[in-house]
Amino acid sequence: MVITPDTVKEKLKQLNVSKAACSNKIYLRVLKEISDVTAMPLYHYHCKSPNDGTLPSDRKLCHISPIFKKGSKQKANNYAEAFDSVPHRRLLAKLETYGIRG
Question: Model-level pTM?
Answer without folding.
Answer: 0.48
